[in-house]
Structure formats: C-alpha cells, structure tokens
TrEMBL record:
Coiled-coil features, chain-numbered ranges: none
Domain of life: Eukaryota
Protein name: BD-FAE-like domain-containing protein
Molecular-function annotations in GO: arylformamidase activity
UniProt keywords, alphabetically: Hydrolase
Ranges of residues in domain BD-FAE-like: 52-164
Pfam families on file: BD-FAE
Species of the source: Marasmius oreades (fairy-ring Marasmius)
InterPro entries assigned: AB_hydrolase_fold (IPR029058), BD-FAE-like_dom (IPR049492), GDXG_lipolytic_enzyme (IPR050300)
Amino acid sequence: MDQVRRLTAREIPQIIFPTYEIFIPLLEKIRPQILQILKRTFSYGPTERHQLDVYFPQKNPESEHNKKPILFFVYGGGFVTGAKSMPPPADLVYGNVAAYFAQKGFITIIPDYRLLPEARFPVPARDVLDAISFVRENPEILRSGNGVEGDVDSVFLMGHSAGAANVTTIFLHPDLSPSISKVNIKGAVLMSGPYDYNAEGAINTASPEVVQNFYGGLESIKKNCPCGLLKDISEESVHSLPPMLLVEGEHEPDSFKVMGKSFQRALEALTKQTVPKCIAQKHNHISLSLALGTGQGEEWAQQAVEWMTSKV
C-alpha cells in the first residue's frame, strides 16, 4: 500500500494504469486461491452483457446451517467500461473481490450490465435490478451442490464508483425503487460514487462529456444523479431505504470527497439517521477493489464484512 500512497496523482485517468501495475503481480501470486473458489455463470437476460457470475463459500463442516447471505458487487468503469471478468493480464479482477467475500461467508454475485453508448441512464441500474430479480426467482442457482445455499431474504449490494451510482439509482429512481423495495435488502455498501454534480464541477470522472452523454445533458445530470434523485424521493421510498455504509479511499480525487460529503449529508438529513463512512487508509480510487485477496489494504473490506454481518 505504500506504493499506492506514493503515487502523486489522484485523478482517475492518471492512476488507473500505475495502480493496476502495482496489484496485478500481487494478484498473480494468489491466482490458485482465487481460482479455487467455486464459480458458476448464468444468463439473466438476452444479451452477452446480461450474464452474472456466482461465487460460493465453502461449506462449514462444523455447522448444520450453511445458508449464506448474498452479496451483489457492482463494478465501476465510468459508465463506459467494466466487466465481471477483465481481459488479461488483469483477468483476476474482479474475481479477487468475489473470492475475498466468498471466503468471508457470502455468496458473491457479480453481474455484467450494459454500458455506453448502448445504454444510457437508467438502463444499467435496471439491468442490475433485473439480475437481482433473476436470482430471487431462480433460487436453485444459489445451491453449490456441497450443502451451501443462498439466503434470498438476506441480500446486500455493494457498488464501486459508477457501480455505486447504479446501486443508488435502484433505490432512488421512482421507476425502480418499488421493485427493489420488495427485496429484503439488508444493507448497501457504496464505494466512492459520483453522487453529485454542479456547474463548478463537483463531479470529476475520466470524461465529464461521458457523464453528460450518460444522463442526457446538464439538467438531466442535476436531476438524476444520486443527490438529485434524493431531492425528489418520496416519503415512502425514504422509509424503505436500507442501511448504507459509505467507503472512500484516503487519496480519492478531491471532487469525489466533495460528492461523498454532499451525499452523506443529504442522506442523513432525509433519514434522520447517521450514515457511517469508512476511510480506507492509503487507498486511491482504483486500489479499493484491486487490493482484496492480496493481504494488503483489506481493512476497509473487513469493516464492511463486520457491518454487513451485524445486519444479518
């Protein structure tokens, strides 16, 4: 993690490749441990982007109850990139994330979803919601064959960056929130999301033009980004929001820290409850997920595990 800390740049375009160069060799060292996790792939819709991977924990021989909570991990990528299985030499990303949480006792599911230019707001969030619905309607896919099965009444969502925006959209969008409210979501872990926007540029992604294309223009961004959706959320939807844990890297771009604070304050004002935030020491925006499984920089994830376990 000291290598990450020593990176002087913070903005996403400048840190992507240096951060991958740090962690790809570390992940390669644990390739056998990642690949030994039982994984199955299913289609939840009509296109190649409508597939999901299910990673299973091992059965605990000392326990008669091997029904496990379910964790959906929604990766980021600035609305234009990302996949549940990245191409070599990064092919262990995001399998390392799933393996980490599977080893902690969660059936971990990573769905692909459609991206720009094909899919604009709120299509990616709807895809993730469809993946959740598919799993609930087909509980047999959550049986490992060795006695482990998923508990469809104990579901958590975790989203990183654009994935966090998609997760919050599911809870806040008036067309999507009624469906997710029928699922027993125990909690949501939101990692470094682009939650807000204003003309001064609080949002700062790899390409602001991409964000405007995704949402359909400046006014649509203000209305439909997570903070914008919070302003118009119904009282019924507020009451149905699950507990949320915010995660933020110590070395996030300043714009993401601004957005994170805006979202946290707005959420606390609406729910009248404290929204906890975990600051991941020495991490930048990219390293949060890449570090899992390496034995370095995993403290934030252990805190998330403990927080989720307390909600089961």
